[in-house]
Amino acid sequence: MKRRNQITIAAPTIALLLSGLPLTAQSQAMKAPFDGSKLQASSHSYSVLIQGNAAGTMETSTSVDNGTVTGHVEMEISFQGATQTIVQDVTFRANDLRMISSSQVTDVSIMHAETSVQYDNGHVTGRGQTPTPTGEVATVEIDTVLGSDVIDSGAAFILLGTLEWTDGAIYSFDAFQSSAGTVSSGSATAVASEQVTVPEGEFDTWKITTGGLAQPFTLWLDKTDGSVVKMGVNAGISIEFVRGRQSASPTD
Fold this sequence. Notes:
about 5% helix; 16-stranded mixed sheet; 2 helices
């Protein structure tokens, strides 16, 4: 069977995907004082653009119930005849950021991958799966103890908006990537203050670059509520997630 070109994206979480910042920048970083008490129920729709062309959609939602936060992501991307779908959930406590669970289901071409982990006072167990460019699904069994300040990478995507951003601010954090079963030292830097226009409208944002994880990306966070207005990922080609629906047919 002829394998079509594929783009594999971890949900921003879509989980934080990044190459590292220079060591000098990481050495100046302050430990991120995430504040789960700032989180409120919300939902947003995004258009996915590949090389500037409409290629899919992403839906995100955050719910808060009796102090428990649940983040949900659904994404579908079509590119060069192949379709990738991702459904991801992460649950944690708002007051102390104690992680509870994380799951992700990914379907791309003929591959199906499921990740599901449970957290219990820093002890994380479960199974992680990741589609690979060779057409195989990599599987890792997870049973490990994490540091008290380690958060799930899916939670990091939600919590970056709770930080106090100023020009040049740099924060560091440790994130567990459940699909791979690894901990990475991440960082986030406010590199600019920008007015951004997306299909939903115009927003005053902080432009945030993140580092230390798997794949480079940039976030534009609404200065009003910390929500993601736009995200850029470089996965060998340009991929953008912009808030609101873009009227165009998906790329073949």
